[in-house]
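chain below, 387 aa
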Amino acid sequence: MSRRISPFELHVDDADLHDLRGRLARTRWPEAFPDADWSYGTDQAFLRELCEYWRMEFDWRQCEARMNSFGQVVMDVDGQRLHAIHAKSPEADAVPLLLVHGWPGSVFEFEKVVEPLRDPAAHGGRASDAFQVVCPSIPGYGFSGPTHRPGWNVRRISSAFAELMELLGYPQYVAAGGDWGAITTTDLARSPAGAGMRALYLTMPLGEPPGATADPEEGLAESERRGLRDWASHQAAGRVMHHSLNSTRPHTMTFAMNDSPAGLAAWIVDMWRSFSDCGGDIERSFTKDELLANITTYWLTGTIASAARLYVEWAQQKRTSPPPPRVAIPTGCAIYPRDVRRIPRAWAERTYSIVHWSEMPAGGHFPSVEVPELFVDDLQGFFRQFR
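prediction:
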């Protein structure tokens, strides 16, 4: 089937924004619980403040304008829309970069880094580090819209990304991502569709522990042991409960979140706070506008349920697929100290051909938002050798 890329401009109807504000005004808040703070989950005082800001001050039209300034495209893949930022570089020899977001994020994760990557000379960098930046919305997420039927697993998504790069005129490219971005680009690197990928850069690499009889902490550096213990702490505290819930009953919670913007914000904000390098103060890492750009994307596109379904699709793919091969292309990894899951390098080396491993000084699960300069510098430094 022939495919076609079309330009895209983001603009939602005024009626959708009016409906959002009305629903926020009618939020039925639970009875306040004294001294709860964040100890029982999302802090009601913060959430009420955020929702009032959302209703009265947040300007979605500015978000649209910023997104439209990058340039965007859409294509149809077997009835599923695939959206992407396509930020063309002014540098003729810029390297095409496939840059993929994760959960619970969107292409707004990369808003701060698109321009420094596309046109580094305009941001105090070297023109020779420029990229043709392609940031797709994962099918089922954001501006790609909901998936409409089963089967949109990681392999189908990664194949669609390869087709997107080919149709944009980039038969050879490099790729980067974290969370689902790491999973989909890793899958693409392992598949025949990913033959054009020259190198891979990850902020949350995959990897498996040693055998069941081995001590998983044997031979590890203290920072690596701390990463394993932090993950265990997240699990014990229920801060990663989305994984088991989304992998088994993704619709159960999302009916409520798709109906209540306050409920949607409570769910997403709790994860952004828990997974970031904010020391418990979420606004130390993210502004209200940054949080709401992402949350509003889920709300206006109605994609919280389809985003969650990807966990079921991934679990099914892993159950029914043979053991995947090791990634053969050169791989770089950046490990941020407050990312939700940080595996030891020895574990990652069972999966990847690692030639670059950075222990970053700050940042969490959303480094392109939290510490964009660190993110850009390390990514550029790794890919410099593949130009």
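The chain has a mean pLDDT of 94. DSSP finds 15 helices and nine strands in the chain.
thats it, cya
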